[in-house]
Specification:
This protein is mainly β. Helix content is 9%, strand content 46%. It has eight helices and 44 strands. It has a 22-stranded antiparallel barrel. One of its GO terms (cellular component) is cell outer membrane.
Length: 887
């Protein structure tokens, strides 16, 4: 390790020497307005971000000294950026809005003469289409910059008076249909505007326009009114999509989407690089909203939990298509490699009805890597210190100006025998996975209005676990050691096609289809479980407006077919679920509020006709204070065997107490979810800070109970008789104490109870109290794009109720509650430039582990053996290393 660090230091030193001699730097001084230390920091930061090698601002002399490489960046470019953050200088004047947004202590005297002029004028308009049209007309008339503000109904113009004039620009704006304080558009031009752009011509200038129906953002006229579910522009990266298919893109980090009526968190792939993130189950280590259960002691499975409830109540989609459900419930999180993920959209509470009926606690959608302006190939190599290795190869490349393609390849293997608690059982399964996908994208939205996305994915996953020395080739019914074998094959093919109507950018039609084949063959000691699933899904969505884009609607129809064929021991369970459905959703947008109300009706052949209403409401008390309300219903059918495989590695016999339902003799699960949240933004020492607090309640109308308490030798399923509810409260604080240092604190409280046969009890394995802290710091980038990153995450988990084992012999009894514990993960990474990155990390650095993870491990074929009682990590500290290379 010392030799490795020495090589890094030597390499950085040599690169620095090379850089020093390669550059030709020039030093210049410019006049810039500012008042205080906050101004100084803001000006210098803006200059460095714009490309200055060094930037030193003197408050006393009101001068900025820049050291730049003139071959790479011009001083004018830097001074323009400084004006954009609010500071007048000898070349450019800040806009009035930028100046007014500065803290009061930073409001300097604005007497500086510049070589350009800026003025604000009243211009009428309604929406993003108006914004794009007004700003384009202004620039066509010679403006250097133009920014139209919908709320103020004003355009800010920056122009050189030697080249054009305000009158010329405003006349051009009127010529394209927009009245302003100097010129009025002719009637024919006004009437030919899209209906959503027909502003009220009688409202006096300076008065609020009630027809305004969008937040300020950098959108194109085409993408303004296009359905978020058909061809949308993802707010986190300003990308046009078809059902989540990236058409054009840029990159950002994690944030809460302020425009959405629902509580939607966007996790970018840069956030995923803060941790190991080998697959989707590890993609939420730096996110406080999702809880990840620890690997099962025998099968190695992980599960997500949200709002205090298991993963099965959250809709898990890929490319907005149903993904982890049915037979994929247990292992599906490991089927989406972390390096394949472009972004994740996490919705708390009821999601849109256009995406189906199964969401109860929320939705987690994963977008895969798609589209690039130029070919890009990436290689990722990963290995931990306990025998796990993986490799990822991704290639995203344009074919021509309309077509692009993506190749995704993943392979992993676990080869080492890991037994940190010395119980003779592997702490995680050994095995391999091969995962390959191909994506093809077509984008001709600007001309023909068509866009399409095609994808195909194949997975082969094999894993072996149990006692060390177990041979998978041993006949199942004559073993000398306890073993688990799981073989999975999965194939998917999908297509999504959308059309935007010519001359009506707010009107679109989209159709998506997917077929999934999933096969699992497995055994757990002397028990066998196998299952096969065929799924076909289709969804047709039409979107348009009612009069203007203040009033949008979506309507459509869907179809779902699930064919299941399962075998447990000697029993066979077959069912076909056929679900045609229809839905409609209305969105009302005002100046400060957004209401999304929808409903769907589904005709389930086994669960009966189901009505699913949902509503989300957002109100902006101020631009920095946002309140959201949500309510909705969801239903699902439980795949009781596939969803509870973590309990198969035990002595428990399965009992199903049927009540006349059509799925394993049980009725479907139905629940209502209600939520309220408040988002408050403010500044601390001039830096952005955000607090989010939310409360959600889930009430089950019917539920399939998984009863582990009736007997430690039984796993019992039956329908709820009585009440079952989950209360979830979370508060999260994000702030940046100083440049490049991000801090996130969170606290969560859960109260999850249900009426079991034996009475009302807390749900097992759910801590009432949880704490979370994430710290992330990165050094400034050097000229080659190199920098260091340091990330650490601390999770504190309170005590959890454990299943009742009081009827076991004393030595095989668990306490009523677990103890609380803390887990620390950390990672340090080095980007040598924009193409090479190396990282070193550690998981569970506190080395806390559950010592009694397997009950009666010495006698795995006896009555008391149980490998499903896992509430904490079963592995001590684990270190890993990795390398990312982009070609």
């Amino acid at each position: 390790m010392k030799l490795y660090i020495s090589k890094i230091i030597l390499g950085v030193f040599l690169l620095s020497i090379q850089f020093i001699f390669a550059q030709t730097l020039s030093k210049k001084q410019f006049q810039v307005k500012g008042n205080c230390e906050m101004c100084k920091e803001r000006i210098e930061n803006a200059a460095r971000k714009a490309g200055a090698k060094t930037a030193i601002y003197s408050i006393d002399s009101q001068t900025l000294t820049l050291e730049t490489d003139d071959n790479l960046i011009s001083p004018d470019t830097i001074l323009k950026k400084i004006a954009e953050v609010g500071h007048d200088n000898e070349k450019f004047k800040a806009s009035n809005s930028s100046y007014e947004s500065l803290p009061p202590c930073c409001h300097y005297e604005r007497d500086l003469q510049t070589s350009s002029m800026e003025n604000e004028f009243y211009v009428k308009g309604n929406c993003e289409s108006c914004k794009a049209r007004i700003e384009k007309a202004a620039k066509d008339a010679g403006a250097d910059n133009a920014e139209w503000n919908a709320e103020k109904q004003m355009v800010t113009l920056n122009f050189d008076p030697k080249k054009t004039s305000a009158d010329t620009i405003l006349k051009k704006i009127a010529d394209v249909g927009h009245d302003n304080e100097k010129y009025k558009s002719n009637d024919n031009t006004y009437k030919n505007l899209p209906s959503c752009c027909l502003y009220d011509r009688e409202i006096p200038f300076g008065k609020a326009n009630p027809k305004v129906h969008f937040e300020e953002g950098k959108k194109t006229e085409l993408s303004d009114h296009i359905n978020n579910n058909i061809i949308n522009e993802t707010p986190q990266n300003n990308e046009k999509q078809i059902e989540g298919v990236t058409i054009n893109g840029s990159k950002t980090s994690t944030f809460l989407n302020k425009k959405e009526a629902g509580l939607v968190f966007n996790i970018d792939k840069k956030e995923l690089l803060k941790a190991a993130c080998c697959n989707l189950s590890e993609s939420f280590e730096t996110n406080a909203t999702v809880d990840v259960s620890f690997s099962n002691a025998v099968t190695g499975t992980k599960q997500l939990k949200m709002l205090g409830l298991d993963q099965k109540y959250t809709s898990l989609t890929k490319e907005l298509l149903p993904e982890i459900r049915g037979l994929a419930s247990a292992y599906g999180l490991s089927f989406i490699p972390g390096r394949w993920i472009e972004s994740i959209q996490l919705t708390k509470g009821g999601s849109t009805v256009t995406n189906g009926y199964e969401s109860i606690t929320g939705q987690i959608n994963t977008e895969l890597l798609k589209n690039a302006k130029k070919p890009e190939t990436s290689l990722n190599l990963f290995s931990d210190f306990n025998g796990r290795a993986e490799a990822n190869i991704t290639n995203v490349s344009p074919i021509n100006d309309k077509w692009s393609q993506t190749f995704l390849l993943h392979g992993n293997g676990t080869f080492g025998n890991t037994d940190m608690n010395n119980d003779g059982f592997l702490d995680r399964p050994k095995g391999t996975q091969l995962n390959a996908a191909y994506l093809l994208n077509y984008n001709d939205l600007e001309k023909s209005g068509f866009g399409s996305h095609f994808g195909i994915n194949f997975i082969k996953d094999e894993r072996t676990s149990g006692q060390i020395g177990f041979d998978k080739k041993t006949p199942q019914y004559t073993p000398s050691l306890y073993g688990v074998g799981i073989d999975i094959s999965r194939f998917q093919i999908w297509n999504k096609t959308g059309y935007v109507f010519k001359g009506k950018p707010y009107q679109s039609l989209g159709w998506m289809n997917q077929y999934v084949y999933h096969q699992q063959d497995s055994f757990f000691g002397l028990r066998n479980y196998s299952g096969q699933q065929h799924t076909y899904y289709s969804n047709l969505i039409f979107e348009s407006i009612l009069g203007n884009t203040n009033h949008k609607y979506k309507a459509g129809a869907s179809f779902m077919y699930d064919g299941y064929d399962e075998t447990y021991l000697a029993s066979s369970f077959k069912r076909n679920e056929i679900v045609p459905g229809a839905f409609a959703e209305y969105t009302l947008t005002g100046l400060k509020y957004t209401l999304v109300a929808g409903a769907r009706i589904d005709f389930h052949n086994l669960a009966g006709t189901q009505f699913t209403p949902r509503m989300n409401f957002k109100y902006d008390i101020t631009p920095q204070t946002i309140v959201r309300l949500s309510a909705g219903r969801g239903f699902r059918t439980a795949s009781i065997f596939a969803e509870n495989q973590q309990y198969f590695a035990s002595n428990r016999s399965i009992q199903i107490l049927q009540n006349g339902g059509n799925i394993y003799g049980l009725k479907p699960e139905i629940a209502w979810n209600y939520g309220v949240s408040i988002q408050q933004e403010f500044k601390i020492f001039g830096r952005k800070s955000t607090i989010i607090a939310d409360f959600f309640r889930t009430d089950f109308q019917d539920q399939v109970m998984v009863d582990l308490d009736r007997s430690p030798q039984q796993l019992t399923f039956y329908n709820l008789e009585g009440k079952s509810f989950a209360n979830s409260f979370q508060t999260q604080w994000d702030f940046t104490p100083f440049k490049n240092f991000d801090v996130r604190f969170a606290y969560k409280y859960y109260d999850v109870q249900a009426d079991y046969i034996g009475g009302r009890r807390q749900i097992p394995f759910m801590a009432k109290n949880r704490g979370f802290m994430n710290l992330a710091y990165s050094t400034p980038k050097n000229t080659k794009g190199g920098f260091w990153s340091f990330d650490t995450t601390l999770n504190w988990v309170g005590k959890q109720r454990l299943p009742d084992t009081s009827t076991n012999p004393e030595e095989f009894q668990l306490p009523q509650y677990s103890e609380s514990y803390a887990i620390l993960n950390a990672q340090i990474s080095r980007n040598f430039n924009q193409k090479i990155r190396a990282y070193l990390g550690g998981e569970n650095l506190t080395s806390y582990y559950q010592k009694n993870a397997i009950v009666d491990f010495k006698n795995p074929f006896g009555n008391y053996f149980d490998g499903g009682m896992v509430y904490a990590p079963i592995m001590k500290a684990n270190l890993y290393i990795g390398l990312d290379v982009t070609f």
